[in-house]
Design goal:
About 40% of the residues lie in helices and about 35% in strands. The protein is of the alpha+beta class. The protein is globular, with a radius of gyration of 14 Å.
Length: about 130
């Protein structure tokens, strides 16, 4: 697994930085231009929703390998913000259910939201390179 590239999200410029880093990483990982655009857009939207409702946090991006499959992983984290606003924004945008601990996966990607009321929220998104 690759080393995380960390962006601290404090303003909308940081959202753009995270999106740009993601696009560069997926290009180097071998994703095609359509996947590059989709992943950059997904990371932009997830990060923007996270920023809108938390005002601060971190976005960690890295390349990953699992069972011989290569991909990119994004992990958004914050401390002490309730999951409700964040999960409703993201799940409404992507039509996923709004469970507090939610995992959605298919052969090309994984999405997970975890929250503990006072501890914070973690959103993990992983997209796999099609073999």
């Amino acid at each position: 697994m690759g080393t995380y590239k960390v962006t601290i999200i404090r303003n909308s410029i940081d959202v753009v930085v995270a999106r740009t880093i993601a696009r560069e990483m997926v290009k180097r990982a071998g994703f095609g231009v359509i996947d590059q655009a989709q992943i950059a857009t997904a990371i932009n939207n997830l990060t923007h929703g996270f920023f809108l409702h938390t005002k601060a946090g971190t976005v960690k991006l890295r390349t990953v390998v699992k069972d011989g499959n290569h991909g990119i992983e994004m992990l958004c984290e914050n401390a002490g913000v309730n999951i409700d606003a964040i999960s409703k924004y993201i799940c409404n945008r992507y039509t996923w259910s709004t469970k507090t601990d939610h995992i959605d996966a298919d052969q090309n990607g994984e999405f997970q939201i975890c929250s503990q009321n006072e501890a914070g929220t973690s959103i993990r998104y992983c997209k796999w390179l099609a073999s």
